[in-house]
Write a structure and sequence with these properties.
This protein is of the alpha/beta class. It contains ten helices and 13 strands. The strands form three sheets. It has a five-stranded mixed sheet with strand order 5-1-6-13-7, with helices on both faces. Strands 10-9-11-8-12 form a five-stranded mixed sheet, sandwiched between helices. It is elongated, with a radius of gyration of 20 Å.
Length: about 240
């Protein structure tokens, strides 16, 4: 285990409006997957007394880190060539896959989309989204039907106006588990992952002058995965799964 005995405070900066990752619960306390994960990481590294979780508006996160008011950002900061120049990133915490959703009677992760849909089947997508572009690349025999919003997309599959929809697995997971879906639908095939279209998933951003902390967090993530504790946290906040 990396030795962080000489490290000072480890302040995890996150937002209050990124459910289920970080949000204010009914008592006004910060809660969510990222909050519990930060605590688990600190426990794994035996630095719990020095760990703090702080909430800020999204546009204040990076300035706060630059000003030395925190050590870590856990808020879905995009991993890119530009951001890698400013931060050290841990291993990927979670990939965010694309998924198909169809009517419940047709759903099943054991069903292959390429075999399930007929040639030219109409598949709803959010217009000009990465998922729309990904559908055309991965499934050129299907016909994309663009919608302006997620609400319209969900209504389309509920109403049978399209043969299925293709979108962000995270958002779809929560919609399927909500009363709004009325248990109409389910996942088909997948998950579908693509660094080109969907990016590098979620990682923890660490101040670039703290390589030992970044190394320690990577070690702790690996340990949590091996022990099964990461899976427990995941299922607590994502009961319907993403994959």
């Amino acid at each position: 285990m990396p030795d962080l005995s000489g490290a000072g405070r480890v302040r995890f900066l996150m937002t209050t409006d990124f459910p289920p990752f970080s949000f204010l619960d009914q008592s006004g306390r910060l809660a969510g997957f990222h909050v519990d994960l930060a605590r688990a990481l600190c426990g794994e590294l035996d630095i719990e007394p020095r760990c703090q979780v702080q909430a800020l508006p999204w546009d204040e996160l990076e300035p706060a880190l630059a000003a030395g008011e925190g050590e870590v950002i856990m808020a879905g900061l995009q991993v890119s060539e530009e951001s890698r120049e400013r931060y050290l990133f841990t291993r990927t915490i979670m990939d965010l896959p694309a998924r198909f959703v169809v009517k419940a009677a047709e759903a099943g992760t054991d069903r292959v989309a390429a075999d399930h849909f007929e040639l030219g089947a109409r598949i709803g997508v959010i217009q000009r989204s990465a998922h729309a572009a990904m559908l055309q690349r991965f499934f050129p025999d299907l016909t994309p039907v663009p919608f302006a919003s997620s609400t319209m997309l969900y209504r389309a599959v509920q109403g049978g106006w399209v043969d299925g929809i293709f979108a962000d697995g995270l958002q779809l997971s929560f919609w399927l588990g909500s009363p709004a879906s009325a248990e109409c639908c389910g996942f088909l095939d997948g998950p579908f992952l693509s660094r080109e279209f969907l990016g590098n998933g979620l990682s923890i951003a660490v101040r670039n002058d703290l390589p030992q902390l970044a190394e320690g967090l990577d070690y702790a993530l690996m340990s949590l995965n091996k022990s099964g504790r990461f899976a427990e946290l995941y299922l607590r906040y994502f009961p319907n799964g993403l994959y």
